[in-house]
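Study this pair:
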Amino acid sequence: MLSGRWDEGRSLAANGKVEIKLKDTHPFALGIILNVAHLKFRQLPKKLTWEQLLEVAVVTDYLHCHEVMGPFATMWIDDLWQCQKPYYGYGYRRHASGSLGLKTKLAGSITIASVFQATTVLNYMIKDAIGDLESDFDTEDMPIAADIKGQ
């Protein structure tokens, strides 16, 4: 993007700087990702809320920076779901207060687990989705891997 034929590359070559607009990117999540990418680990929160972690997952997927976020995502996921088997399937329920419905919370939890490849959490979420929900839930706008959506 910053070299060759792209507008951003031409602007960088001509002006020595370039502005890249990231539409629909949550500023908090982008700040978290940039702090990780720039090794500013002390500026990272030890814990994230479910909503914050979902935003970080969506922006991580959008920017294709899964690997750099992996260790920190694991820490936040472990904290959120307490890394104990009984809690995996109920993690989204514990955080299901507020304006978001249960199906949205479940889809968001599957998104988090899918983006960060938290397979144990993901397996429990999928089993919960299959076992609990009588109707389909909308995952169209979520960055869930295609092979998981097909399960």
Remarks:
- The mean pLDDT is 77.
- Residues 25-149 form one domain.
- Residues 66-81 form the longest helix (16 residues).
